[in-house]
């Protein structure tokens, strides 16, 4: 019986694997069409000052609505884009569309907030990547200082000096750089010191656990102190409760993002928010 079960399991597993491989190819093809056919969109999640709730910046999050499957999470399709090389096109689109939207806001007399754009480390490894980021900024006459690129800590780990140089190029062009999901990797302090950063972004996992786990709370406290001593900005992601807000404030964190304040907003809702806040 054990043998039969084993064989079945084996068979099932195999089938599963080929389904997975096939699904991935189908998704990859659909994503290719979406990127080239302008079927992606952007969401905007405000960043707020913890004390007052004032919106001081916004993070751009890409959205893909599959014609049949509906919305697919970027946590699913970004890795597909990275493996298939589509990430370059996707990143270009996000950058150009963001610049276009900023220009529209400017023209509509709305406040132009600083924007954060997520960058895959694969994008940093492309030759001429800085030019691809700079071109739309120039084209729309925007200030590079308005932009912050968020790169995940785990993405940067085990990368070569070339990636650090790429980040330096971004800083030299006047852009800001944030280390996203900070605390989930194992960056050493000496590695951190080499990175030309503007901001540390505390990972949501620590924010979730911090109110009932002393270790998570210590980690948050330590990251805030670290940012201060390295003269970096610090922001907490994934704040969902008042308790978390209060605790972060007590620990000296001044900035946050999370559902407690705003979920990622459609372009329409984001414009509405900008219009209301004058
Ligand atoms: P991230 O940059 O760390 O973005 C934060 C994610 O957490 C977003 O998920 C956001 O919708 C979600 N989030 C924000 N506040 C809360 C909260 O209070 N509670 C909970 N449960 N979630 C919250 P999303 O939009 O699904 O994006 C997932 C990841 O995909 C991002 O993580 C980022 O790494 C990547 N990503 C998104 N857009 C882009 C893009 O344009 N380019 C690249 N390369 N990566 C992107
Ligand atoms: Mg991010
Ligand atoms: Mg993050
Ligand atoms: Mg994250």
TrEMBL record:
Q: Which residues form the EAL domain?
A: 24-278
Q: What is this protein called?
A: EAL domain-containing protein
- Which organism is the protein's source? Nitrincola iocasae
Relative to the complete UniProt sequence, the shown stretch is 419 to 696 of 696
